[in-house]
Structure to design on (83 residues):
């Protein structure tokens, strides 16, 4: 499980209707264990609360997502020398 914070960039792969898509976005909010996100743009009833900390992620041009934490990877930040 990642230890992300607001502002971290993450990526994951999702699948729907036979299509696989890589997604990349920025963590916008932390969702405490046992809670559901209050502000989702795509789904007013986003599913059951999760038993662990999770994240709302904004994907540029596509809105907010509530991806499964087990699928998330942090995108490495460039170092001072640009690598």
């Amino acid at each position: 499980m990642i230890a992300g914070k607001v502002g971290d960039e993450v990526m994951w792969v999702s699948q729907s209707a036979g299509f696989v898509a890589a997604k990349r976005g920025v963590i916008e909010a932390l969702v405490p264990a046992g809670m559901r996100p209050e502000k989702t743009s795509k789904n007013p009833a986003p599913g059951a609360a999760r038993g662990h900390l999770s994240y709302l992620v904004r994907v540029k041009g596509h809105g907010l997502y509530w991806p499964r934490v087990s699928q998330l990877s942090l995108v490495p930040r460039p170092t001072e020398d640009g690598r």
Remarks:
- Residues 9-74 form one domain.
